[in-house]
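#lab-general

N.A. 3:47 PM
ok so I finally got the sequence cleaned up, no stray characters, all 90 residues accounted for. can someone with queue access submit it? mine expired

B.Y. 3:52 PM
send it over

N.A. 3:53 PM
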Amino acid sequence: MDTNAVLDIGMQALLLAAKLAAPVLVTSLVVGFVVSLIQSVTQIQEVTLSFVPKAIAAAVALLVAGHWMISTIVQFTTELFARIPSLTGS
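B.Y. 4:20 PM
back already:
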């Protein structure tokens, strides 16, 4: 196994992690922005008002994108297992 293969696998894993985290993070970012905008307009500074909508939105994002996330990680893992013989030189 050479360094190029290790770097390739590492780069693919990092890109996959970013793709899988994006739906939840973007959803939480947008909901957090909207809630903080509403809080600044109405001058209501309640901590639970900013946490609860983000938690609900993250759960909804996981429900919506969960199947895609699981199938993507299973496909990546299957490809990694299929590459083992070529990586070991056997």
